Records
---
Amino acid sequence: MALGRTHATPAWTAIRLGKDTAEAQSAHGPAEDGPFGLVGMVVDKGLRKRNAVGRNRKVMRPSFGTAAGLVARVVFGRALAFAFVVAWPAPAAPGVEVRPATNAAYDRYVALTDQRNNQELQSGRHLLWIDSLGESDRTKDYAELKQGQVKMSKLDTRDNGVEIAVPDGMIHHWVGLAFIPGGHVDDVLAVLEDYNHHATYYAPDVEQSKIESRDGDHFRVFLRFRRHKVVTVVLDTEHDVRYFRDSPTLAHSRSSTVRISQVENPGKKDEHERPPGNDDGFLWRMDTWWRVVERDGGVYVQSEVVSLTREIPTGLAWLVRPFVTSIPEESLAFTMEATRKAVEGRMGRAKSRRSSGAEAASP
């Protein structure tokens, strides 16, 4: 998976109201119709422009700034929310089975992504995704990372330049990067490998977490994900995670889901899991690559996530697809922020203990 996030954690494609929604509500006042009205504001927030091979970078644009624009977005939000419910049924609906061709396409996509990751690690070039940008953009992004921003990019792995078709499925591919001033590789690994407390670090996205087995740097991890937005979805997931310490200032990890089951009636007496691969298709598979790079007076933490979900019915794809494909980005952004917060919290507690120890030792 990749460093620590078995992080499978919140990088799947379930639906949640994120920071953008709160910002939209703050900027325009409360929506009359609750989250449905706000959906349009979130969808409208950004455009994307092609920036580098295989990457799209988000470019923010001003809001409409007029009553007419706000009304238009609220109306669009209602329509989008309704279409989403129609296109992606509630958990009680009949399951959708993953086809062998869908899995095969995903396997090919992941194999090529693995190949590129291994080449970067072996060469030591482009260890962070922003290193592949032009000088001007790269300098700007490094400066913004130092200011506390999380840098996100949508990736696209191709097979000899050809897009990989995924029958009846959708592949979501994002990378996130954060900087922790004063941090070290060991500080990050201590949080990422602490799976028994991921339900604390990554709440509310991770509801339960535990290490099922460990052999050195090889982990088998259980995580229960909960997501809510329009519908609530709970998934029980198991991940195979391996960590690698490349040098005193570099580490990486690789994780893959080995089992994903959608949970029916969670927390109730009749709680049960649906058969893996035969459910509503919110998350069928997920692979993660983490990198931790110590330099510039701190540590950079990068997580790259590829996930597989069901396709959207053709008739509604034009309306629903842009919304659904934005969800993995929001989830990964949350994960990066939560990771930084957990690492900084651990560093702060360690500093306090050292200070207390020094005071106690003073004559």
---
Amino acid sequence: MSDVRDDNGLVIWLTGLSGAGKSTLAQALSARLTATGRRVETLDGDEVRENLSRGLGFSQQDRETNIRRIGFVARLLARNGVVVLGAAISPYRQSRGDVRRSIESEGLRFVEVFVRCPIETLIGRDVKGLYAKALSGEVKQFTGISDPYEEPLEPEIVVDTSEESIEESTAKILGHVLNVQAASVESCELFIPMELTESFAGAAYEQNRTD
């Protein structure tokens, strides 16, 4: 959009299955963007559910309500100059599209990032055992197992956390958002805490059952 007002903030929306690395990526992006002097806020799906959407279940209607609330807060922050990082499974295209239209209606940028990771890899990670419980039927309405996840059709960015390091995925996102060509990880001078690098490369992924 030619009339996008980057100085008034933007929304980077990280969507993907539980444990794909959305929250870890959001932390890395926040650290890097904050280092450049930008005001940054992260809206994590679990935290919003706990504080703004307490009482909601995991039906499609409740999940969409939670996403609309995240989108509403994101829009308020972005139009006041904040870079908003939304980290939520957000399994339905309709609700993600609704958030996009709400953000873009104010002349603000909405960047959808599909955090891809094969279900087999996620089951292998399964730090909290939620995928195992979902497969056994102990946990109901689990996205990707017993509930659907509708992959983005035309996301601005796709990262694959089964193949990319946190530095590579972060560089790819920043390269798009900052309108610079991320020719290599080294050229981006990423400021990422060591603990995030270690967790992204290993098995310590968040197992969030949200949206």
